[in-house]
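Why does residue order matter? Because the sequence determines the fold. Keep that principle in mind as you read this record.
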Amino acid sequence: MSSAPVPIKLATVVAFNPVTTIEKALFNFDLIGIQNFKLSGTVAVSVSDAFTYANYSANQSLISKDVYTSLTSGATNWTAEQLANINQITSDFHNFIALDFSPVINFTGASPSEIASQTNINISIIYRRDLKISGQSAGGADSNFKYSNSSSDIVLNLNGFGSSGLANDGTLDSSSFGFHTLMHEIGHSLGLAHPHSSIINGKAIVTADYGATINVGFDKLGFKIVTANDMNKEYFSIMSYDDVTPAGAPDTFSQTPMILDVIALQGAYGEGIGTTGSVNNTITPGGSGGVSAYRTYFDTGGLDSVNLQNYQSGAYMHMGTTISGASHLVGVSMSLADQKIMSAGGDPISLRWYYGEFENASGSEKADVIIGNSLDNSIFGAAGNDRLTGGAGNDSLDGGSGQDVAIFSSAFNQFKIQHNSSSGLWVISDTLGYEGTDTLNNIERIQFSDTNLAIDLDGNAGITAKILGAVFGKNSVNNKSYVGIGLNYLDAGWTYDNLAGLALDASGAKTNDQIVNLLWTNIFGVAPTVSQKSPYIKMLTDGVTSGALAHLAADTSMNATNINLIGLVQNGIEYLPFN
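Structure:
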């Protein structure tokens, strides 16, 4: 043996009676007649050699037929890398739940049964081409592996880690299927069952208890949840067999227990120390190459921020909603492309879960959709055309650069709207209190449930209003459809002159005389005399475009007075989006 056991009091297997829907979904061994269980005490984790066929043949009543290796020798020669990766997995579980694990003890040279009384979860690696599994746990009972004290032991099958047989990656590195398998099997050893009761013709038959999770609230995060199969996904639980493989890319696997696992395990074991601790933290999913793989973050306190900069094509984030049976808010992030896939019922590949109270978020350099939670959030859109929702709480929404929209779920008349002309900030107060009082900065548009408000009167909204006043008259600024059309073209990159020319074409003014008459009348309220309009007709004759002339008219102080531009600056201008 390579090392002596750590002197600890071993954990014991005790009964656990799940209560909530999520607990019942995953602590579900009673479905197959096994008492639901959990471990109590410090969990001793070890590795050993594997049983050989010779061991099994000589002791068939004491060794299961599924736990021996087909190789001549059961020696594993565990490496420092493998041991470190096992410690990483148990450390991840410890961060989520109030359960301690020992550092892995290396019992190289001993068989699993020889050291079973000194450890709780012993891990051995076999090679079996006849077994269609990548791993298995004894699942809380000695009867499964047969030898005494084997109730939480795990056997990994190297052949099940891929298609390369003995050349499969057995390092248990986080990028490998072996890592994913071991985390799944540890879940079993801690009491978690599969979401399915059986697999028939390659299709998982989801248990009724797990199927009940369709009603706990994940649809509020944007998931399309219709049937139990919509919840039987790797990104909801590592206990699922529904492994999501990105198209045209290597499988990156779940890097931690997933959200249902965390909620269920905390119901049994209590809360761990958190993945971020209780101080102020900033989480930045992914790296410079983007965001791949699934991961859950668990926050236990402090003011915490999420930086979405590595979602390089744009991010979607819901900062948290209530889920039935969960003690904390549940939030999610993914790429904006993944969000569209998710809302259509497909599988995202860049998903990250946020369990706990996350207060702040900042976006990527592209268009983002960020939805706040019930706390007082600070949300920064950064670059791109962002859509920001504060939700409940008193929120700060800063769009950064781009054409940014602040979204409120209630009707326009439910809010008190104030604009501070010196600071440029807008304060939107829900008079009924549901959505709090939000402060907006660098926001161009506001969307209510029944209308939209453009507040960039120093930008495209102001240009639209001035063109409407000059070409269609001062009352046209109240035409929401006209305003929406103008905003649509300017936001798409049209110039002031281009839009003014289009407006003149729409007005029916075709000749130079008609154009000048129209603009003059709308600006001054009376038709021009021959001498008054003569110089402007000459300008058009000499090559000034009709759009440029309308631009000049729209920018006059009299037009600003006519359309009450000062009032629009304070109150915004309503519009209907034009498609």
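DSSP finds 16 helices and 29 strands in the chain.
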